[in-house]
C-alpha cells in the first residue's frame, strides 16, 4: 500500500529537493487520488493550478465542436499537465481522465510560478520536461503525416512504455484499443489486427497487462 503523502517543507534554495517536493504535500499543493475512469478536469473548466502525475496514467483528450474526441497525450508518472495556466489560459482546453487508479499532485498557479522564479533546480526540471515534450509533439506530427498506422501504433506503444528512457515501463496499464485507435488516427479493427500481429510475432505479450518488448522497435525501423 502506498504510504500516506507526507507534508514536507522545501529546503533552502541551495538544498532544494525537487523529488521530495513533487512526492509530498505542503503549502499551496495537495495530493488527489482518482479512480479508473474518473475525470481529473474537464474541457472548459477554470484553470488555476498545474498538475503532476505521481502514480498511474492520465489521458488528455480534446472534444471538437461537432462532438468528435481526439486523444492528444497519455501521461505517466513524472509528467506535468495543465501548465497552460502559466501562459494565461484561464480555462482548460482539454479533458484529463485517469486511465487507471492514479495519484496526482496539484500545485497552485502562484506557487508554481514562484518555484520557477526562485528555485533553479525545479526550473531546470520543468523546462527540460517541456522541451522534451515539444520535441515529442513535432515527432508525433511527422509520424501522423508520413507513417503507416502499423508504425504509428508500434511507436505509440514504445513511447507509452518509455522505451529509451532511464526507467522504462515495459508493462503498461490497461489501455483500450479504442483509446489506441484515437491516439494514432485509425479504426479499432485496424488496431486489433496489428495488436494480434505483434503478439504472434512475440513483440508484445498479454500477461495480466500489456508487456512491450524492445523488439517492437523493428516495426518502427522497417521500411
H/E element order:
HEEEEEEEEHHHEHHEEH
Alpha-beta classification:
alpha+beta
CA gyration radius, whole angstroms: 18 Å
- Total domains: 2
**CATH evolutionary superfamily of the largest domain:** Jelly Rolls
Reading off the top of the CATH hierarchy, the class of the largest domain is best stated as Mainly Beta
Mean pLDDT: 87
CATH architecture title of the largest domain: Sandwich
Strand share of the residues?
15-25%
Shape: globular
> And the CATH topology of the largest domain?
Jelly Rolls
Q: Which stretches are poorly predicted, pLDDT < 50 over at least 5 residues?
A: none
Walk across the major sheet and give the strand order.
Answer: 1-8-3-6
Task: Specify the helix fraction band.
Answer: 25-40%
SS elements, strand count: 11
End-to-end gap: 46 Å
Tally of contiguous helical segments: 7
Largest sheet: 4 strands, antiparallel
